[in-house]
Amino acid sequence: MDDARGRPLLPEYRELRASACGFLDLCSTPEFAAEVTLQPTRRFRSDAAIIFSNILVVPDALGRVEAGESPRLDPQRSNLSRMLPQ
User: Fold this and answer.
1) pLDDT (tens place) for every residue of the chain, 86 residues total
2) Nearest 5°: CA angle at 1, between 39 and 50?
3) Is 4 part of a structural domain of the chain?
Protein backbone atom coordinates (compact mmCIF):
# COMPACT_ATOMS: atom_id res chain seq x y z
CA MET A 1 0.00 0.00 0.00
CA ASP A 2 1.30 3.45 -0.94
CA ASP A 3 0.33 6.94 0.14
CA ALA A 4 -1.25 9.53 -2.20
CA ARG A 5 2.17 10.40 -3.62
CA GLY A 6 3.10 6.77 -4.33
CA ARG A 7 5.46 6.37 -1.36
CA PRO A 8 5.27 3.07 0.53
CA LEU A 9 3.59 3.20 3.94
CA LEU A 10 5.32 1.80 7.01
CA PRO A 11 4.33 -1.85 7.60
CA GLU A 12 3.37 -1.12 11.22
CA TYR A 13 1.08 1.68 10.01
CA ARG A 14 -0.57 -0.62 7.44
CA GLU A 15 -1.20 -3.22 10.16
CA LEU A 16 -2.73 -0.67 12.54
CA ARG A 17 -4.87 0.88 9.80
CA ALA A 18 -6.20 -2.59 8.89
CA SER A 19 -7.34 -3.08 12.49
CA ALA A 20 -9.29 0.22 12.53
CA CYS A 21 -12.85 0.40 11.18
CA GLY A 22 -11.77 3.05 8.67
CA PHE A 23 -9.46 6.01 8.25
CA LEU A 24 -11.59 8.39 10.31
CA ASP A 25 -11.71 5.77 13.07
CA LEU A 26 -7.91 5.79 12.99
CA CYS A 27 -7.97 9.58 13.44
CA SER A 28 -10.68 9.77 16.09
CA THR A 29 -9.74 6.86 18.36
CA PRO A 30 -7.18 8.17 20.88
CA GLU A 31 -5.29 4.86 21.10
CA PHE A 32 -4.97 4.56 17.32
CA ALA A 33 -3.98 8.23 16.85
CA ALA A 34 -1.38 8.00 19.64
CA GLU A 35 0.09 4.82 18.17
CA VAL A 36 0.31 6.30 14.66
CA THR A 37 1.95 9.41 16.13
CA LEU A 38 4.58 7.35 17.96
CA GLN A 39 5.41 4.81 15.23
CA PRO A 40 7.90 7.02 13.33
CA THR A 41 9.64 8.05 16.58
CA ARG A 42 10.25 4.38 17.38
CA ARG A 43 11.37 3.47 13.87
CA PHE A 44 13.68 6.46 13.35
CA ARG A 45 14.65 6.99 17.01
CA SER A 46 13.68 10.63 16.98
CA ASP A 47 12.99 12.68 20.08
CA ALA A 48 9.97 14.51 18.68
CA ALA A 49 6.66 13.56 17.08
CA ILE A 50 4.05 15.27 14.95
CA ILE A 51 0.56 14.62 16.28
CA PHE A 52 -1.39 12.47 13.83
CA SER A 53 -4.61 13.91 12.47
CA ASN A 54 -6.13 14.67 9.09
CA ILE A 55 -7.79 17.58 7.37
CA LEU A 56 -11.00 15.51 7.13
CA VAL A 57 -11.49 15.53 10.93
CA VAL A 58 -13.11 19.00 10.83
CA PRO A 59 -15.62 18.31 8.01
CA ASP A 60 -16.43 14.96 9.70
CA ALA A 61 -17.28 16.79 12.93
CA LEU A 62 -19.60 19.00 10.88
CA GLY A 63 -21.30 15.94 9.35
CA ARG A 64 -19.97 16.64 5.85
CA VAL A 65 -18.00 13.42 5.19
CA GLU A 66 -19.38 10.33 3.46
CA ALA A 67 -18.17 7.07 5.02
CA GLY A 68 -16.42 4.44 2.95
CA GLU A 69 -13.02 2.94 2.15
CA SER A 70 -11.71 6.44 1.37
CA PRO A 71 -13.69 9.24 3.04
CA ARG A 72 -15.19 11.81 0.66
CA LEU A 73 -16.57 15.26 1.28
CA ASP A 74 -20.27 15.78 0.81
CA PRO A 75 -20.64 17.74 -2.46
CA GLN A 76 -23.01 20.26 -0.81
CA ARG A 77 -21.65 23.81 -0.98
CA SER A 78 -22.18 26.31 1.80
CA ASN A 79 -23.79 29.66 1.08
CA LEU A 80 -21.14 32.28 1.84
CA SER A 81 -23.66 35.13 1.78
CA ARG A 82 -25.44 33.80 4.88
CA MET A 83 -22.16 33.97 6.81
CA LEU A 84 -21.45 37.60 5.98
CA PRO A 85 -22.78 40.38 8.23
CA GLN A 86 -25.92 42.06 6.90
Assistant:
1) 677 777 778 899 999 999 998 888 888 899 999 999 999 999 999 988 988 888 878 888 877 777 766 667 766 655 555 666 66
2) 30
3) no
| Total domain count, the chain | 1
Q: How many whole angstroms separate alpha carbon 26 and alpha carbon 33?
A: 6
Query: Do 33 and 53 form a contact (C-beta atoms < 8 A)?
Result: yes
Give pTM, 2 decimals: 0.67
Range of the domain at 16: 11-73
How many Å apart are CA 32 and CA 39, to the nearest integer?
A: 11
